[in-house]
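Researcher: We plan to redesign the surface later, but first we want a full-length starting point. Tokens attached.
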């Protein structure tokens, strides 16, 4: 159980999405990588300043994979965020990508569910932990950014370890409709488990100086 709990620590501060008006599952064994259409990636050079003073710089969409957004954080290597929401591992990329693709273009009521193997980098040899994720476009909202209202999508994600009962989490994202930036993120544990990411709110959007 401890290993499964520690594994969720690898997911980082941005994870999520996916389906049609009705919820649908993804076959782990049969899913294959696919392109994702309808994703709004934050434009290159846009910087989101968060309430913890983290500056996240965006680099637009991957030219070879337009459904994947490129993100730079201070002191870290550039990240590839599928759908602008989650980073994946080669072992589970096809399954999670298939799930996320079902959410786009974003519309209230779309939802999906996916089962896959989460991979631990905390051990010398890869270990695989069965995990279930659910995604739902829960609604729309107006996000107050420095006194200006920005229309946003509300996306709800769930993650449940199929090995560790304590690994049961809910994530809420507010996603800017215009730019695709995750404006706020909250994470809660349904069972009192350790949280694998900190909540944040964007306090400013600016264009990076060259």
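Model: Full-length starting sequence:
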């Amino acid at each position: 159980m401890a290993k499964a709990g520690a594994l969720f620590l690898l997911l980082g501060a941005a994870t999520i999405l996916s389906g049609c008006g009705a919820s649908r599952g993804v076959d782990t064994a049969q899913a294959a990588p696919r392109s994702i259409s309808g994703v709004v990636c934050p434009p290159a050079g846009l910087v989101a300043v968060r309430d913890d003073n983290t500056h996240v710089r965006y680099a637009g969409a991957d030219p070879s994979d337009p459904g994947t957004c490129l993100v730079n954080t201070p002191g870290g290597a550039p990240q590839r965020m599928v759908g602008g929401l989650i980073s994946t591992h080669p072992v589970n990329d096809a399954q999670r990508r298939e799930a996320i693709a079902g959410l786009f273009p974003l519309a209230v009521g779309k939802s999906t569910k996916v089962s896959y193997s989460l991979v631990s980098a905390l051990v010398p040899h890869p270990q695989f932990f069965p995990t279930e994720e659910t995604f739902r476009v829960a609604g729309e909202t107006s996000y107050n950014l420095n006194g200006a209202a920005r229309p946003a999508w509300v996306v709800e994600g769930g993650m449940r370890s199929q090995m560790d009962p304590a690994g049961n989490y809910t994530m809420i994202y507010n996603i800017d409709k215009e730019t695709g930036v995750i404006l706020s993120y909250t994470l809660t544990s349904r069972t009192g488990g350790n949280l694998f990411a900190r909540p944040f709110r964007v306090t400013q959007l600016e264009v990076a100086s060259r």
